[in-house]
Design a protein that fits this description.
The structure is a homodimer.
Chain A (H helix, E strand, L loop, with lengths): L17 H15 L6 H8 L3 H7 L3 H19 L10 H17 L1 H10 L7 H17 L6 H20 L1 H4 L6 H16 L8
Helix pairs in contact in A: 1-2, 1-4, 1-6, 2-3, 4-5, 4-7, 5-10, 6-8, 8-10
Chain B binds a DNA duplex (30 and 30 nucleotides) through helix 3.
Amino acid sequence: MTLSHPDSSARAPRPSASVELRSIAIEQFASAGFAGTSLQQIADLAGYSKSSVLYHFASKEALLEAALGPALDRLEQILPGVGGLSSSPQARARFIEDFIDFLLEYRLEVHTFINQGQSLRGIPVIDRGNAIIGALAASLTTGFSSTQQKIRFGVALGGAAYALVGGMNFAGDDLLPPEEVRPALIATVSELLAPAAPTDV
Amino acid sequence: MTLSHPDSSARAPRPSASVELRSIAIEQFASAGFAGTSLQQIADLAGYSKSSVLYHFASKEALLEAALGPALDRLEQILPGVGGLSSSPQARARFIEDFIDFLLEYRLEVHTFINQGQSLRGIPVIDRGNAIIGALAASLTTGFSSTQQKIRFGVALGGAAYALVGGMNFAGDDLLPPEEVRPALIATVSELLAPAAPTDV
DNA sequence: GCAGAACCTGACCGATCGGACAGCTAAGGT
DNA sequence: ACCTTAGCTGTCCGATCGGTCAGGTTCTGC
């Protein structure tokens, strides 16, 4: 990819086009939806032609995959730690922090996936993400899978994702700063996922 | 509308087409998105022609308005009761129950609105809904509008909406029955919106 | 019987969709 | 000098989009 690009330190105002297109794409997919975003829009926003977008990414689906892939890789990394939820409180806190940090780092990807994960079923990268979240849910509800537990998991996951990107424009004028959101979100999610030991507020 | 329809008790297997189209439309808007749903799809699912859809509803936006309108009317009805949140515990519980029942009754409408309320900005019925939720958020954060409070509100609203329709396919195979979800959801949301007096689980 | 409203349809419109393809330019290796 | 490759573009394609329109059918009120 960047092997034949010796101008990494030279004058290169353009961040290699591919990266730029991907970031613009995920921004649009999250805010306007996958179906609601055309390749022409992405091209216009990036200052390229539609043909150029299709040169870097073979199809619209490939662009979605490039946009969501890294987030899924990261999520798969922290997934094994979910086992710690039922062990020590430290391991539990550790996983929740990792998970919240994941949400914060991949705001747009998570938002896209949460909102459109059902309607885009069939696209490989979406199915992959659905499988990961399914595994996450299975781990969380191991042993006690009461309706209450399921609701708590659903509210925690969907609520956190929604609060991060989607709905904060209702509570305020614009997005809240991550350094302020992080502790509040950790406290709230900890409380939801650990009902036996309610965190102090 | 139905004034000139005396066959209300006669043989009329078709529920007046308008109603049928609206219910199919909201179902599609919620599951596939507004942009991702074509008038042709709706027509096919209903067994009508696209022209017929546009006969009953002047435009795609008008169909969206007809689909979401009743839910917004109902939400506006229960909105004044939000003032009770800061008064007696009974009034608070009453409002939360009303709100959860609203979510249950208008699952699809709420899901549509929560997921696409931002991207569809500009459409009158969407703006109206945004204004209502804004008023709701303002009432809830009156007095103490700390980041923690905003997060709690966001998680409660988005989480409840998500758990109702969107994400339960992760925790189980299909949607949970409302009579089981209701008490669990009431308990969870009560806890989130009233951190000072945590509900027992 | 007749006018007219309500209902439904196929044909058609311009615009836009995702995508295929040929060709242009600049840079690098030989 | 030459060729290859990467990057980017304009043009074109069939399909589909939301929407208009003229006409057909059936039912109702007079």
